[in-house]
Amino acid sequence: MWVFKCFLSFLYLLVYLKTVTVTLFQQTRRYFSLSLRTCTYWKIREDSKDLRKVPRHISFVVLESDINFVDLAHLIVWSMAMTIQYISLYDREGLLKKNAAALSSEIIKKQKEVFQEESSKFTFVLRTKDVKFDCELLAPTQVCITLLSEKDGKGDIVEAAREFCEEVQTKKRATKEMEPDYLNSLLKATCGMPDPDLALKFGSFKMIMGFLPWQTRLTEFLPLTTHINIHYSTFVASLRRYGDCQQRCGK
């Protein structure tokens, strides 16, 4: 009998130790996770000097069912600190567009945390294709953040083609005027913006799910499992991979 009681006591001790170990592990992991994600503006600026090249336009393609605005705000603010002036965010259903105010609020919060006393020197413009903004007139400390959905891909191309056909029909344009640069000017979702240099694709899908088929001819796509709880180190590693890749442009 006493052997059975000792055995139960031993099992209880093992369960208790396991519970304590798991709790300590989770708390430690959460601590280091927050530490890795909390970086100052000056540290990010130093890290940017070690990169071979920094994209002029970076896209975050979210192909996950859950979208975390706090984590996206981290990615945006880190990009701002890297002096990336053009940032675009894509989700197929347009959830980001519908909640633009909430996203903007999170960006402002994270910007104050990361930039600290430098925060007031940097501003951003949050836009969709319905918001007219001349991106070419950006100030050195101003960032253009564009929210995109599936309608801004093929749908935008269809609208541009329809507009051009109407101009040809009314003899305002000739068919020979349809060239890549002119088509770019008709695409409202990315009007005035350079094409994405780098796109970080979050999710398990092996496709881009309607993301800008025309503007991404030369875009470097890097797949990542998720944007949830993403670390700053993962973001920097992705920029290093982009800097090391050789873009042959079809050659």
Helix content: 40-55%
Shape: elongated
Please summarize the sheet with the most strands: 6 strands, parallel
Please, what is the average pLDDT?
80
Number of helices, counting only DSSP H or I runs of 4 residues or more:
8
Structural class: alpha/beta
**Spatial sequence of strands, sheet with the most strands:** 3-4-2-1-5-6
The Cα radius of gyration reads: 23 Å
Strand-and-helix sequence, N→C? Answer: HHEHEHHEEHHEEH
Strands, count: 6
Low-pLDDT regions: 26-36
Please state the oligomeric state of the protein chains shown: single chain
Our estimate of the beta-strand percent is 5-15%
Tell me the distance between the termini: 80 Å
Write the layout of secondary structure elements.
Elements: H1 2-37, H2 41-48, E1 57-62, H3 69-81, E2 86-91, H4 95-98, H5 100-115, E3 123-127, E4 142-148, H6 154-169, H7 180-186, E5 198-202, E6 220-224, H8 232-244
Parallel strand pairs: 1-2, 1-5, 2-4, 3-4, 5-6
Helix pairs in contact: 3-5
Report a brief summary of the structure.
Pfam families: Prenyltransf. With 251 residues, the protein is of the alpha/beta class. It is built from eight helices and six strands; from the N terminus they run H-H-E-H-E-H-H-E-E-H-H-E-E-H.
Please explain how this structure is put together.
By secondary structure, the protein is an alpha/beta fold. 45% of the residues lie in helices and 14% in strands. α3 links the parallel β1 and β2. The protein starts with a helix and ends in a 7-residue tail after the last helix. About 4% of the residues have low confidence. It is an enzyme of class 2 (transferase). Belongs to the UPP synthase family. It catalyses: n isopentenyl diphosphate + (2E,6E)-farnesyl diphosphate = a di-trans,poly-cis-polyprenyl diphosphate + n diphosphate. Pathway: Protein modification; protein glycosylation.
